[in-house]
UniProtKB/TrEMBL annotation, chain A:
Sequence ranges of Low complexity compositional bias: 98-110
CDD domains documented for this protein: TBP_eukaryotes
Cellular localization per UniProt: Nucleus
Organism, as annotated: Pipistrellus kuhlii
Protein name in UniProt: TATA-box binding protein like 2
Length: 343, 403
């Protein structure tokens, strides 16, 4: 099974231009997303590609050097594709459910490219095929008959057996509460050991407690922001403790309108991610500017969560009001990321 | 009758629109770009958040519109260049850029590395032509179009942010002949090295320019190693009249490490026991066979850095079964065990191991004991001490002690 999986992975890989010594063996595992167009302009599976850079742009892929000896001999080329396609596990289907949370049509540009080929100029469109890239077509005359296009469902599959088994960890909870009384910040700063107050810098007292380890901003209006907790319950307990401190200082503080405003989680998918490819296939949601920030900013629509995705596979999820949104966002992004797993 | 405020806005808008056109001219962009950039600026200006923004932000917005236009036409222009031209802070530029892209709902294509490399060399052609003009006329007419541009930016168009103004391609008193290089050869090799860096995870998530600097340096060195191995990266940048970006040395080391790994897969290089200096002499060979060598030298581990030993054995078997036809080695002798093809950040050991915290049993409704709260309060004595200390501090700062 592992061997088949390996061939499936190879099948998905973009076959970049091979040099003159390229053996009729495995194609190079070039670091490109599997959604690349897979067009072979030679029906001879043993053909070797020219390594010229210009030609790489023309020939976006090839099926030439993949060893399909595991398939029965009587299969034709087309049937070979079909078989390979059919034998894909749920894994691939999950990969192909592109951006289910967005419910938008798949972008037409599928050439994830190395960023070295022109990414989205209009002349490169002629090289790109619509729909999913895993056509494995041997005849470039019919680039539209993509067997996988019909398989890709638009709704996310319930991750039963193909769950990521990775649970994002909550790192920070931001909550607010209303103490419902006017506060004398100078008095608080004087009588509380754990408070700092620099009115010239910021118009609130910054207070900290050790357990749960949190920080609070307490304003003279009686409103309070509590940050740093690792769970909703801890955030609530911490906020109550701050209210108690303020009470003990002689103010008629109450504890009203406690609300979680933001939750931040993080996790690690443990494989590298081609951010350049991801920004191409999910343009509507992604922003990747390496000149500004090393991570890709993915704005998921449903649930409304912002994800920071890094090349190392680490993912930060933020903007949630409830922890289920974090989990749901991760379950949505995981299959997309797995699609870019190939080096 | 025009309201004074409207007039003010009108004037400031017009002046900014003029700046957009000026910037396009300084950058020598095609004339069609000007109209697009101006249109973007006008569109942005319709948003109240932009209209009410500070002058600095409006000025930075000029650069943002030009950048977006360039990106949409695949015209390689870095944010660093624009910030230098506008004397703007990159943070401010970054915030405004992200804001305007979101506000206008734009799809901005990524910066194309290959085009960026090519631009360096084509700007050299301009610089060569310009320097010929300079020499003959003795005047600073670096760009004919700039001469009639009365914008203050005309003077800012100096070599330092013309990417590589590559004085390497012309002889001069300060440029020894052995350091001169053919532009086309250098472009081609730099492109190949940048492509290699991209394939081996050295580009994703990183600033693009330092990679290009490092690649250009290696390309230049490898074209005449005997004469150039002694030249350092810093000296090369000086010769080429370009800034040395800080990460370039690190990119250079990473690229050399990749080349060394690839060299281990070539039998005739294996015996030479190459190091980071000597490998430069063989870069042309390595680049020629780079696809095969990367395949052989590296393997990806789906489970990342965990259990590499089992991975190696499993993969090793698989590879031999399929048959690496062009293996130069006898069956018995294996090449160096393949390294993991991963981004450098994944290859380094983790700085600190963060253990998963134990599942919290906090409900949020626990009782809060008085003693716990009182630990945070000052005793009356402490309050007095604190007040005294504060008063003393205030007295000290208000009347500073004589030195």
């Amino acid at each position: 099974m592992e061997r088949e999986e390996r061939y499936l992975e190879l099948y998905l890989d973009r076959c970049s231009a091979q040099d003159d010594l390229a053996p009729p063996g495995l194609p190079p595992l070039s670091p490109v997303a599997p959604y690349d167009v897979y067009v072979c302009n030679s029906s001879n599976p043993e053909a070797v590609f020219n390594s010229h850079l210009e030609e790489v742009k023309e020939i976006t892929g090839g099926f030439s050097a993949v060893d399909l000896s595991f398939l029965p001999d009587e299969l034709t080329q087309e049937n070979k594709d079909q078989t390979v396609v059919r034998s894909k596990g749920e894994d691939e289907e999950n990969c192909k459910t592109q951006s289910p949370p967005s419910k938008l049509p798949l972008p037409s540009q599928q050439d994830a490219g190395l960023g070295l080929t022109s990414s989205s100029s209009s002349d490169s469109h002629s090289h790109l095929q619509p729909g999913d890239a895993n056509s494995g077509q041997h005849t470039p005359e019919k680039p539209d008959s993509l067997p996988l296009a019909s398989i890709a469902p638009m709704t996310p599959m319930t991750p039963v057996s193909e769950g990521s088994e990775i649970v994002p960890q909550l790192q920070n909870i931001v909550s607010t509460a209303n103490l419902a009384c006017k506060l004398d910040l100078k008095k608080i700063a004087l009588h509380a050991k754990n408070a700092e107050y620099n009115p010239k810098r910021f118009a609130a007292v910054i207070m900290r407690i050790r357990e749960p380890r949190t920080t609070a901003l307490i304003f003279s209006s009686g409103k309070m922001v509590c940050t740093g907790a690792k769970s909703e319950e801890q955030s609530r307990l911490a906020a109550r403790k701050y209210a108690r401190v303020v009470q003990k200082l002689g103010f008629p503080a109450r504890f009203l309108d406690f609300k979680i405003q933001n939750m931040v989680g993080s996790c690690d998918v443990r494989f590298p991610i081609r951010l350049e490819g991801l920004v191409l296939t999910h343009q509507q949601f992604s922003s990747y500017e390496p000149e500004l920030f090393p991570g890709l900013i993915y704005r998921m629509v449903k649930p409304r969560i912002v994800l920071l995705i890094f090349v190392s596979g680490k993912v930060v999820l933020t903007g949630a009001k409830d922890r289920s949104e974090i989990y749901e966002a991760f379950e949505n992004i995981y299959p997309i990321l797995k699609g870019f797993k190939k080096a | 009758m025009v309201q004074p405020m409207c007039l003010f806005f009108l004037i400031s808008t017009l002046s900014c629109l003029r700046r957009v056109r000026d910037l396009c001219r300084v950058l020598q962009l095609p004339s069609t770009f000007e109209d697009t950039a101006v249109a973007y600026y006008q569109k942005a200006y319709q948003h109240p958040g932009i209209r009410a923004a500070r002058v600095q932000k409006k000025e930075v917005l000029v650069g943002c519109c030009v950048l977006i236009t360039c990106r949409q036409h695949n015209w390689p222009l870095t944010m660093g260049t624009i910030c230098t031209l506008l004397y703007a802070d990159l943070d401010m530029f970054s915030g405004t850029y992200m804001q305007i892209v979101k506000l206008l709902g734009l799809d901005v294509p990524s910066l194309c590395l290959a085009d960026l490399v090519k631009t360096y060399c084509s700007s050299i052609r301009r610089k060569l032509a310009a320097s010929k003009l300079e020499c003959s006329q003795g005047a600073r007419t670096a760009c004919p179009s700039l001469a009639d541009c009365s914008s203050p930016w005309a003077l800012r168009h100096d070599p330092h942010f013309d990417y590589f103004s590559f004085k390497l391609f012309q002889a001069s008193p300060s440029m020894p002949a052995k350091f001169m290089e053919d532009k086309e050869k250098m472009l081609s090799r730099t492109l190949q090295l940048v492509e290699l860096a991209d394939e081996t995870w050295l580009v994703t998530g990183r600033h693009p320019l330092p990679v290009i600097t490092a690649a250009a340096f290696l390309a230049w060195q490898s074209l005449q190693p005997s004469a150039r191995l002694t030249c350092s990266l810093a000296r090369f940048c000086k010769l080429a009249n370009v800034d040395l970006p800080y990460p370039a040395s690190s990119r250079l080391q990473e690229l050399l490490a990749v080349l060394l790994r690839m060299a281990e897969q070539l039998a005739w290089l294996q015996v030479l026991k190459l190091d980071k200096r000597s490998v430069v002499k063989h870069i042309s060979d390595l680049l020629q066979h780079r696809h095969t060598l990367i395949r052989k030298a590296f393997r990806e581990g789906p489970s990342g850095v965990e259990a590499p030993a089992e991975e190696l054995w499993g993969r090793g078997q698989g590879q031999e079964e399929v048959g690496n036809g062009s293996s130069d080695l006898p069956k018995g002798k294996r090449p160096a065990s393949p390294a993991l093809l991963l981004p450098p950040c994944m290859l380094k050991p983790p700085k600190r191991v963060c253990p998963t915290p134990p599942a919290s049993t906090v409900t949020g409704d626990e009782d809060i004991s008085d003693s716990e709260i009182e630990q945070y309060l000052r005793t009356p004595q402490e309050v007095r001490d604190f007040q005294r200390a504060q008063a003393a501090k205030r007295a000290a700062t208000s009347s500073p002690n004589p030195p």
